[in-house]
Model the fold of this input.
Amino acid sequence: MAGPPVHIVTPFRPVLRSLLRAPGFALPAVLTLALGIGANTGAFSALRELVWNPLPYPNSGRLAALYETAADGKPRGVAEANLLDWRRSTPLIESMAAYQPRSFGLTLRDGAPVTVIQTGMTMAAFFPVLAVPPALGRAFSEQEEASEAHLMVLTNRLWRRSFGSDRTVLGRKVFLNEDPFTVIGVMPAGFEYPIGGVLPDAFIPLSRRDYCCGRLGSQEAIARLAPGAGLEAARAQLEAAAAGLARQYPATNGGRSAGLRPLAETVAGPRREPLFLLTAAALALLLIACANVAGLVLARGLGRTREMAIRASLGAGPAEWVAPFLVEAAALAVAGSIAGMAAAALVLRAVPAFLPGAVPPHPPALDTAAFLFAFLLASGVALVLGAAPAWLLGRADLTPLLKSGGRAAVGGSAGLRNALVVAQVALSVVLLLGAAVLLRSLLRLTAVNPGFETAHALRFGIGLPEKRYDTGRKLIDFHHALIEQLAALPGVRSVGAASRLPLRGGSAGPASSFQIAGANLPVPQRPRAWINSASPGYFEAMGIPLIEGRGFSWRDDQPGRRRVVVVNRTFARTYLQGRRPIGTLLESSWTSELNPPGSAWEIIGVAGDTHRSDLDRQPVPEIFLSWSQTGADGGVYVIRTAGGETGLPRAIAQTVQRADPRLERISVTPLELVVDRNLESRRATIQLVGGFGALALLLAGLGIYGMVAFRAAERQREMAIRVALGATAAQVRGLVFGHGLRLAAVGAVLGVAAFIPASRLLEAQVYGVSTADPFSMAVAAALAVAAAAAASAGPSFRASRKAPMDLLREG
Done:
């Protein structure tokens, strides 16, 4: 009768001691897993925080972005007068509010330095819509909004930064553009307006003088649905209300409608593609890391076949002799997940740089959910890593292993190791291909002519307070005098200014309706162009060519004389086909104190195109008004220099300070930064994907090195016999070297094949290059094969230098 089975317990401590005695195995395995687990933990945290989590407002599922659609069906901003009418006829929408971003110069006390802040000019309903009251004090009421009371609600960020978290700030008077405002509230920490591209520092009542109550305005707007109301039903009700206004006001609202979309979709939409790309790259890196460590664990497990054979001969069951592998893999995975937190933190720090639009005010951080995710990921990795050698040994006949001293080959081990190496190479090629395509796209973008010259040019922004510069004539006189003073500085060739420079990112700017004089088109049917305003000398300072006609003049183009505009080439091609541009009269909806409605604007020049928003977007039709006739309460100055004047920025700043000592201190920067900043997110994406690709290639190279070295050790007896039969050292090298190259070639082909369907993640990031770019494919495959060659070289040369007897003795 057989005796009871022998139970062999494998405690945790002996496994740890075993790992500590093998740092050459444990340290690379932990670091490799740290890269994979950390990258995925960071990507998971970013996705959860910026895409999946509900918005940080009560009942955020009831929030929606509100928009109008023009006659062409394209979404646009909301006119406040229309919004006020919608309120009365949309009971399924509980409340709605308009929002207008604007920068102001903040002065904490009279005579103190000026700091430019971003404000959200909002309707009083803005805070009830979001259902977030101030944490300190109160918000302004509809009566205060209607009376344009000078009240201010601070964000927690501005309260801490400029007011030192002073809880007695309520009732304090501060100055915005030198007008006194009273602080009445402070929003809670973490509250931010979710859309708009610019993060506000404070909120003030929406100016009815500037933004209400015409029907052609263009503000951002949000709405809160009534309890139990569905989005589709509310949208239908809103469309019916918009249709009623179109019938009631055909001159302004004809052909226009309105719509709703979930606010969460509006906020998360632009972030989805870059974050999914990050997640895909992190997942590929994790798979490579797992394949790499699996190869190490497999090689280590196959070196313990004699130990396993002895355990089996003593009666140990599968659970008992498999336990060491699982415990060891778990220790490696847990250590890797702990070390991976540093990698996850680095990934999260990089996330804001490649997201479009405004940087998230509270970048995602590691929290309990991130640690739980890392733990679950480590558990899965441990199970896979521990199961591979256990599965192979469980299928093997352990008796021959015991008789041969534990050195007999285990069936299937070579094929599994080869498959792991091929998978690493294939995934590395996918990442490298992504980086190569993005890099080629960036190179194409940098070659795009932005339409202006960036070399030897400086820029600075300026804003004028309305209280002192309260007429168009004062604004014109200030800019004229300042431009003349700047032009007189040594080394300055030309000076100009504009309300907006090219390459602003996001939308191209405010579109305005116009028509050729005498066309008599209804307002909804009029074409639209982007309105900008510029000073005389702007086109020269920017290096924008004048294709036809002339630019603006301080002497000839003054208020009270014929009103003039310059249009760009795209405007002339789009709207002036078959017509000579110079002398054509335009009627525009744009008016001001010095330019009341009723007079036409004469085209005096056609300028070259510039890219208004991004280099990968085509130029849009644009109309330039002249600062010499309209004035401007702020804008951007451009100074073209002769080059080499290192002290010029300081001289420029001093000149502006002398012109008005009470203005904010300006920051003079090279014009080249306009282009550089426009490409920042693309560069960050390339760096991230390229960094993952480089790490993947390094890990694949290490995997190939380990596999080739292990395979060479397994075949030492065979190679000794080959040498004894006359094989040369070169033939032995080729035997070892060729094995690594063949696996790399197979992996490269599979990687290229896998990249073709995966490249859809890159389509929105690519400009001027096909995602199936043959050159990029060739480069990525060549890098993978080169890495394999470098990794295979060492083991092949070592194998070829040994004498046959040494090979036999070691084998």
Observations:
- The CA atoms of residues 409 and 492 lie 79 Å apart.
- Confidence is low (pLDDT under 50) at residues 6-10, 405-411.
- The first helix runs from residue 12 to 20.
- The chain is about 50% helix and 15% strand.
